[in-house]
Design goal:
mainly alpha, 6 helices
């Protein structure tokens, strides 16, 4: 996220140099890290209960966010494969493997008999 913020600050400078008046604080506010820290912690192996302690969100919101990211990674893998970029495909695959674990991807949160 720090790299994104740095790039956004550079863009503000470029815009202002090109006489496109841009307020830095307002422009940077458009780039919100959202759940990036949470997903990063999940990928590093933190437990779901640890994630819940990190943020003031409902558990379902966390699960839905991680599952939607998984779906996005699947789409990006397909796109990388379609353009023939095996290295990019492998990076997306690695991301999928890191987030698809534990209770977030359980087939059901109810006990099956």
């Amino acid at each position: 996220f720090a790299a994104l913020q740095k790039t956004a600050k550079h863009l503000v400078e470029v815009f202002n140099d090109a006489r496109i008046e841009t307020e830095e604080a307002a422009y940077l506010a458009r780039f919100d890290g959202g759940l990036m820290g949470l997903v990063g912690a999940w990928c590093e192996g933190k437990s779901f209960s640890e994630l819940c302690e990190m943020v003031d969100l409902f558990e379902g919101t966390i699960i839905r966010g991680i599952r939607r990211l998984s779906e996005l990674l699947d789409e990006l893998k397909s796109a990388a494969k379609a353009i023939g970029n095996e290295e990019l495909f492998q990076k997306f695959e690695e991301g999928c493997q890191l987030i698809r674990r534990d209770i977030v991807f359980a087939s059901s949160l109810y006990v099956e008999i």
